[in-house]
Write a structure and sequence with these properties.
- Helices cover 29% and strands 23% of the residues.
- With 343 residues, it is of the alpha/beta class.
- The protein folds into two domains: 199 residues, Medium-chain alcohol dehydrogenases, catalytic domain (Quinone Oxidoreductase, Chain A, domain 1, Alpha-Beta Complex); 135 residues, NAD(P)-binding Rossmann-like Domain (Rossmann fold).
- The protein has a six-stranded parallel β-sheet, with helices on both faces.
Length: 343
Amino acid sequence: MRAIRFLGDRRVEAFEAPEPRPAAGEVVIAMRAAGICGSDLGFLYRPSPAAASEAPSAYDRWIPNAAGVIPGHEPAGVVVELGPGVHHLAVGDRVACYHITGCNECRACRAGWMLHCRTYRSYGWQRDGAFAERMVADAKSCIRLPESVSFVDGAYCACGAGTAFQATKRGAPTGGETVAIFGLGGVGLAGVLFAKAAGARVIAVDPIAMRRDLAGSLGADETIDPLTANAVEIIYDLTEGEGAHLSIDYSGSSAGRLAALDCARVWGRSVFVGERNLTTIDPSPQILHKQLTLHGSWVCSWPVMDELVQLLACDALPLENAVTHRFPLERINEAFRVADSGE
């Protein structure tokens, strides 16, 4: 079957991979949609010795993928083969996969938080993933997609939108509050939708005009270009000098994180989601003296992903409207060039 692998330095190669076969408790899924994540770009597509960071964070130094693994960790498709012992799924089921598997025995796994399992394995990193015609998945990681939920939505939920949904739950915006969102990539754009669905006023910040325009079309009430204006000052002006009730940084940039802290009001909340890059924080003025609650939020659990899928089935959230491009597998080089451009 057709599959792809990364060669580093922005090079992608197609190759013929063996047909996957399911072991006990596994299924084979024919891919219908697979999302590109920022981690695919940062750890697999872009890396080259010339691009090494001068002051990498611990996460920047992480080498997450096992050699020879087919990448792609946002899978959605149709079950085409069952392994022994699989009884709750059937051939023809439409599914998306929670992208992390674990030992199924530890406390984290029993709670559905397999990403905190000490022996976790992720599709596309430690086991073959979605950038192929077919993939093997643990049946337990599969979530059935209702007919009203598209494969694109399902793939989006597997990581990008699921991450934003969990971050929004951590920040807990309510009607009448102001939410400032920094970084409008795939995760941040989903965050705009979720904050608006909670009834909040959303101020969206990103240096790329196309992203700001898309955020506006998804419901953002105000958009700010941080390269041409002081986003923190504008947020205070827009909130009568009070600041945002909740700020969420999806950018992972030092500037975005600091602005998220600085724009939050006294007794406000802030959530850090975006990864990589060292950031120096001044705790007294930015956190302590503001009585600020700061959350870290990393991906989501299987139950939270399932909750999001069921929400999409019964609510008219236009999640797929945040997806800007679609490419067939044979044009994956072009897909990564577009994703790498930020648009």
